[in-house]
Write a structure and sequence with these properties.
Layout (H helix, E strand, L loop, with lengths): L9 H7 L9 E3 L5 E5 L6 E7 L3 E7 L5 E5 L3 E4 L11 H16 L5 E10 L15 E11 L2 H4 L4 H9 L4 E2 L2 H11 L6 E6 L7 H8 L19 E5 L6 E5 H12 L1
Antiparallel strand pairs: 1-2, 3-10, 3-11, 4-5, 4-7, 5-6, 7-8, 8-9, 11-12
């Protein structure tokens, strides 16, 4: 079947290109308090990148040279649409880039999804950490390749969701993401460390101290920004394991324990 954006089931395309939730490194309990148990243990090589406090967006490049932009949950715009959904400023932030890259990134027989974090002006509670001048930026953090989409469009919706939420998506590995970003002119989320998992603390207090080793955001859009980082995302090189470590989660937990 030849891919045609006007003929396919957009609901299924939306589902197969969503980004699964990333779990916290330590188990998150009631009222946002972390538990002592490590929820996502790591071994071997691990890579840490800055966690950017913005909104998740998808750039979906399709075989027929259609390109869709989506939020975490919804499709917002196709590159030939006159009007796009203005939600969270996502379309405005990426539309010029999308139009520039259509010819080079649309591939016959393959859907490629570039997951980016859009951040800055009025986006999320931490916008002032990145800009005081109202600027907006985005950073690439993951890439997914979907080659067997024809078969998947024949699946029922619940099977697609199960496939997505249980590791079915084929991700670029961490080193490949850096190369892809360089090739297409994207900025990727800043790399913070590349080390053995034995160097990642498991104790709550020690993990918080570890996060303090990265005192300022490397994603500031202007020098006047506050620069307080949200945290770190840790992953295995092939992304088979991935977890988020938010500074505020550890601060909240340790503060309550002192009481």
């Amino acid at each position: 079947m030849t891919f045609d954006i006007r003929q396919i089931d957009l609901g299924k395309l939306n589902s197969m290109t969503k980004y699964p939730s990333i779990l916290t490194y330590h188990t998150l309990g009631d009222k946002g308090v972390l538990q002592d148990a490590v929820q996502i243990p790591f071994e071997g090589r691990i890579i840490g990148t800055e966690k950017v406090d913005g909104t998740n967006a998808r750039l979906i490049f399709c075989p027929d040279q259609s390109v869709l932009v989506g939020s975490r949950e919804d499709l917002l715009w196709e590159r030939r649409d006159l009007i796009g959904n203005p939600a969270m400023g996502i379309v405005e932030a990426v539309k010029e880039t999308v139009q520039r890259l259509v010819e080079s990134l649309c591939r016959p027989g393959r859907i490629v999804v570039y997951f980016v974090e859009v951040y800055g002006r009025s986006i999320g509670g931490g916008a002032k950490n990145y800009t005081k001048a109202g600027k907006v930026g985005f950073r690439l953090f993951d890439v997914v390749f979907i080659d067997d989409f024809n078969e998947m469009f024949g699946w029922p919706a619940d099977r697609i969701a199960h496939w997505r939420d249980n590791g079915g998506q084929k991700y670029a590995d961490a080193d490949e993401i850096v190369k892809i970003a360089a090739e297409i002119g994207f900025q990727s989320v800043p790399a913070l460390f590349d080390k053995d998992a034995s160097q990642l603390p498991t104790d709550l207090a020690a993990t918080y101290e570890f996060l303090l080793n990265f005192p300022s955001s490397r994603c500031k859009l202007d020098e006047e920004a506050n620069g307080i980082p949200e945290g770190v995302v840790v992953r295995s090189p092939d992304r088979s394991r991935i977890a988020k470590l938010r500074r505020e989660d550890y601060e909240r937990t340790l503060k309550r324990r002192k009481k």
